What does this fold into?
Amino acid sequence: MNHRYEKSPPEDDDILDMLWKRSEDGLAHVQRKYGHLCHHIAMNLLGQREDAEECVNDVYLAVWDTIPPNRPESLMAYVGKITRNIAVSTLRKRTSAKRNCGGTVLLEELSECLPDSSASDSADDLMLRDALEGFLETLPPEDRAIMLRRYYDGESVEEISRSLGLRSGTVRVRLHRMRTRLRDHLESKGISL
It folds into this structure.
């Protein structure tokens, strides 16, 4: 019987070294190691396979274009953040023409508790980021997971409730309460909505 053994993927630091040296092997390793994560995030936010595939291709280009000069501490978090940002940007472009996709609901839910980002500068963005991180730290672990899975990963209420063993109504109520608390938290930090 013929067994096939594959080498384990290189560590993230080695992949970063390859990218830093402009080796396309580094990008191939990013694709093999984090492609599933990218597709998962893009599909959750965009809901259409073609858009998700285009988004993921844009992610690989963005990784290639930004490393160097950036050298992230966590390659997985970096790739995930780029994916999310590109997917949200794609979603905003798409929803400006039509408003019928699942990601629109996420943007509408968050619009009630986050400031309009179109008029902000980098100092405002940093202040908002710090306030959001501070808010997430105040949440119990299960609430933090619900919030991140819904608004960062773009998971549906049903997916979250199934994976955490909660009723959908419970997840919806907790999300509503957390959005209200987030709005109050941001206002207490001087961030106007």
Q: What stands out?
A: The CA atoms of residues 40 and 153 lie 8 Å apart. The mean pLDDT is 83. The first helix runs from residue 12 to 20. The domain at 112-188 is CATH 1.10.10.10 (Arc Repressor Mutant, subunit A).
